[in-house]
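Anyone have tokens for LacI family DNA-binding transcriptional regulator? Sequence:
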Amino acid sequence: MAVQNDKDKAQSPATLMDVAREANVSIATASRVLNGSTRKVRNQSYVKVMEAATKLNYRPNAYAQAVAKGTAPNIVLLVSDISDPYFAAVSQGVVKAAAERGISVTIGVAATPHEELEAVRKATATRPRGIIISESEYVNAPERDDLTNELRQYESTGGRAVFILNRNLPFPAVDVANDVGARAVAKLIVDSGYSRPVILRGDETHRSSHERLTAVREVFADAGIEIDPRAVANGKFSRTEGYAAIMQMARSGLLKPGDEALYDGRGIDSVVALNDVMAIGAMTALRANGIEPGEDVGVTGFGDIPYSADVYPPLTTVHLPLDQMGQAAVDAILAKRDEAADGGSANRLIYVQSAPDVVLRGSLPRR
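Reply: yep, here.
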């Protein structure tokens, strides 16, 4: 067992108690001087504390100071899957924007509404300066009311909550025009000569998935294209689930022309994935079944994650400014109170992109 000698002790950082002892004042008085309390301290005591702090080379704990004042100098960011490139890109934007302002970021993972509620409860107990939730799109989840109450109580103590891609709760939300982007990519698919799509969606109660799917259906309907009911599958916004959905269709004989194939036996000519990772998983599954993406079928995604340009063929997708979305959330957290009030209700939307661009790449050649 290691024994601490006097030299080790001398090198240990001075504590508030050390300063109070050196200045011959109470810890409360030393704290008021060094932690910026608004309560007045006699000038003589103030001088003694400052001299003791200088002598002992005391360095105040910024985190403890902020907690004592009601908020810690950090932001909590909750995502559903840190390994997903979408959430990684948003997280990068949050961390970068916060670091530029001297604010640290604590990232937590909450994959379900229940986990999200529990994570928020734990986060509010530490009194961070703000909480950013980059998920929470299950609009009918029973945890919504409890989450709203938890965050309202947190805001009443001076904290701030901001959502990314959720506008169903009474808090500021960074959003993009999901429906506009979905219509744009669907129109590109139709204009490029495709008429027999498989659509990979997320869960039915997932807001972004619902908005994108509705818009895609509308564009196909306007073009006189009837989507085979068996051609819509839940890829759960996951690469592995997108892969599994296409593999299951292939095993059932739905993709290639044949008696059991979609579209009256003609099979499919395209895969419309409502996010990029499902599209990437789908391309792998297509190849595994002898169907070449970008040649035999067209493939599109949504989000323009960093990997979308690196897969083969490069993925045609809807560009979302993921880094800017994270930055906008931080800006909303750190905005002055009077600036926030100028925006109207707490449920105002923070649009970083009103008309998402479609990035045309090799996965969707014209037929």
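Residues 207-222 form the longest helix (16 residues).
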